[in-house]
Specification:
GO terms for molecular function: glycerate kinase activity. This protein has about 375 residues and is of the alpha/beta class. The chain is built from twelve helices and 13 strands. It has a six-stranded mixed β-sheet with strand order 3-4-5-6-9-10. A five-stranded parallel β-sheet has the order 2-1-11-12-13, sandwiched between helices.
Length: about 375
């Protein structure tokens, strides 16, 4: 009897984040996979494009895509899409879809931008039967504490004279009360899952205004106004500004925490969670990695934030208990390489697809050399 000595099929999981300005997460996964296939044509390759609560997160979940007119952060008419899963009655909405920075990059609105357009998407989802609203909080142009969403759902911030406060984070300090007479109760009463791509608090030197305000066009004096306004809003609405993730999306969690608490009396219907682990679980990534011979992930820039709730750090955490090797494709590295990561830098090439295919090819070649040496 002849013993079967045919080699076992290699199992490779490819789970990158998007490479901003170069490739979406699905594109990056596909291109990396093409490169791996050139070297390992018989490998079993599973594509699991990831997200961390930033742009592109909603697309990682199941359901049909809903597109409708709404407004961007500056109030201009636009279109935005979200995912709605009828089976679970859950809407998956990127706040950046309507209220993102790219739409106003030509004219940033750090003091006057608001999340009203996202509120329009939320209200629409509820009319379709959504009972859970999952919001991905990354990539916004706004620092309004979620007040734009509140207005879209019928809650009106008022100044001491009882007049509606102008929109945007620059006017948060003027709010003295919130009128709920016209509140969209069915939408407000939904279960809320807020997926954070950062763990920043609402205020202070690591808060929404100080860290992310300059990226959204805020000058130093604007940062002071915004930070003071977020602090005032937290105090007014009895929200702890130090809560990790409360600074994500310009403090959207502040307004929504108050909203859910107002409807239900406590915080049992709202959760603020790190985005990458939630996305990983929805994709079955923990189980896939446990059975894999190699995991490939990646992002545009590898730095100290990469292990702070981001995709690369999440993949490394999932792989570590199983001693599964992790290869990271990236455009640049700042600081120390995370423990357990084998880094492959993208070549200087204006063709994004070619860059990632080449990276996948080199990762597979390195894996073959390493596995041969190790036996």
């Amino acid at each position: 009897m002849t013993e079967n000595t045919s080699p076992r099929t290699l199992s490779i999981v490819i789970a990158p984040d998007s490479f901003k300005g170069r490739a979406t997460a699905p594109e990056a996964a596909a291109y990396l996979g093409e490169g791996v296939r050139e070297v390992l044509p018989h490998a079993e390759i599973t594509l699991a494009p990831m997200a961390d609560g930033g742009e592109g997160t909603s697309a990682t979940f199941g359901g049909r895509t809903i597109t409708l007119p709404t407004t961007d952060a500056s109030g201009r008419l636009t279109e935005a899409s979200y995912r709605y899963d009828e089976t679970s009655a859950t809407a998956y909405i990127d706040v950046a879809a309507a209220s993102g920075l790219p739409a106003v990059i030509d004219r940033p609105v750090p003091l006057t931008g608001d999340t009203y357009g996202t509120g329009v998407l939320i209200a629409d989802a509820q009319t379709r039967g959504a009972r859970t609203i999952t919001l991905a909080l990354g990539g916004t142009a706004t620092i309004d504490g979620g007040t734009g969403i509140l207005v879209a759902l019928g809650a009106t911030p008022l100044d001491p004279r009882g007049y509606a406060v102008p929109k945007g984070g620059g006017y948060l300090s003027a709010i003295r009360s919130i009128d709920t007479a016209q509140l969209n109760i069915p939408a407000a009463a939904c279960e809320w899952v807020l997926l954070c791509d950062v763990s920043s608090p609402a205020t202070g030197p690591q808060g929404a205004a100080a860290v992310f305000g300059p990226q959204k066009g805020a000058e130093p004096e604007d940062v002071e106004i915004l930070d003071r306004g977020l602090g005032h809003l937290c105090s007014l609405l009895s929200v702890d500004p130090a809560t990790p993730g409360m600074g994500a999306a310009g403090g959207v969690g502040i307004g929504l925490t108050w909203l859910s608490r107002t409807l239900h009396g406590d915080d049992s219907h709202i959760r603020l969670l790190p985005g990458a682990p939630v996305v990983a679980a929805s994709l079955g990534l923990p189980e896939l990695i446990a059975q894999a011979d190699l995991v490939i992930t990646g992002e545009g820039r590898l730095d100290h934030q990469s292990t702070q709730g981001k995709v690369v750090g999440t993949v490394l955490d999932l792989a570590r208990p199983h001693h599964t090797p992790v290869a990271v494709a990236t455009g640049s590295v700042a600081g120390e390489v995370p423990s357990g990561a084998s880094v492959t830098l993208l070549e200087d090439n204006p063709d994004d697809r070619a860059q990632l295919i080449d990276a996948g090819r080199r990762i597979a070649q390195r894996y073959l050399r390493t596995s041969t040496v190790q036996g």
